[in-house]
Predict the 3D structure of the following.
Amino acid sequence: MSWTIALLGLLLAADLQNLLSWWHGWTIRASWLARPDERSADFTLVVPVYGHPRYFAERERLARYRANTLVALGVGGPHARELRVFADELEAEGWRVHRVESTQPSPPELVLSALESGSVTTTFVLRMDADTYPLEDVGKFIHQMLEAQADICSVKVEVARPRTVVERIQALEYRMAMLSRNFRPWLTSGACFAARSEALTTILRRHSLWFPGEDVETGRIAHGLGMRVRHLDLRVATAAPETWRGLYRQRRLWWAGGFRHIVVNVDKNAWHMPGWTAYYLGLVTAGVLWKTGHLVQPGSGPSAARALLALFALYVLVTFVANWPVRSPWMVAYPLYAFAQALAMPTVGAVYFCVLAVRQRRLGRYRFGYRRWWRLAAPPRSAGYPRNSPYEIPALRRLGVMVPPPRSRCSAHAESRSYTRPRLALREETRSRAAPSAGCPPPSTSGHATREASVRHDLDVIDFVAYVANNSTCGWGGRRWI
């Protein structure tokens, strides 16, 4: 009994991690006194709609951003005829629509199709669910995201107009969960997140397209590729289940996705973020042991009741202290809600994951590697470092270091140089010397050419070191302990 109480106590103590949210080092904020020139319209709201037209019934909430909105509509499935008619209605109302023929569409598939079709021509893109709308000026935050040179950002998600008890307890849960985005910005929500168009295209091409947990997988891919992941302090409101039955069905899907992230992909998660993985593995273990009857043994009723009562009182105190910025009277009842969910839903989610895995005949494994200190997402660059580019090296420039652009004999050789690992760049350089591009003279074997190749390689090394020093999301060995 003692070790089980200790396990629950450790899990409770781990909830104090929200105290880290007082640090806003990875949070991008927009000033309320922003000037008109500190607003950017270079963004597209991509709204994936599938299943039924009713999910986009309250689209007038996005009327302000109609010119910046693209509806990625899946016109397949059992309601294909209704969806095709709905697409025509949207276009008649002035919405831009991108149709996707798919029998079982998912949000990543719809957004990726819209990006690859050329329908998105802006620098930034916000994926926003059909039942979600922004509560603040998006343009101000996009401008700040451009200044911060972020690749992908999570946002703050709130429950829209909570009325019932179920919605009010979820509203508190959402506000508490959003505090963790200040120190875990890669926990992207399917309700909304922002990203550079090129970065999001690279991410979704490596996505497993597994529906449960697909939103968090987007942030995990960005984290695994070593992109600059930040938290955008933009508030959006989304619909939440109004009944306990609807909440159960939603959380069954969420915990199935959590099982996929924590158990099926435990190797990569444990290497990149061992603290987060250990916390949720502890929740799964506690839930399974409680369901099998090992936590409360026969004859230990009074002692277990006293221990659980003490844990409940301590949990209320921890909830208030750790989540003080979003304090609410509902925090007194929240421990019971969280305790019931943590004990029941891990087992339900694991079983439901197995059902979905059998249906889809795949496990939803991550499609990125263990090393995350080099960038896969960066496109090829020509000679020079363009300003306001996420791939420039502003850290050296702020120190007054003049970094010359890569040299090349012609533009074809320059375009063949990609901003990736120095080893890849060196292999491309060696390959270009062995087989020169069309229209370019073969490199000379003189001493001058040898010195020029050495300078180009040194610049690659400088570029790599500057990127690692400037990207604060990278830790030792690619790990993030929280």
About this structure: The beta strands are 27-28, 43-49, 69-74, 96-100, 124-128, 132-134, 152-159, 192-196, 229-238. The chain is about 45% helix and 10% strand. The longest helix spans residues 334-360. Confidence is low (pLDDT under 50) at residues 373-431, 433-482.
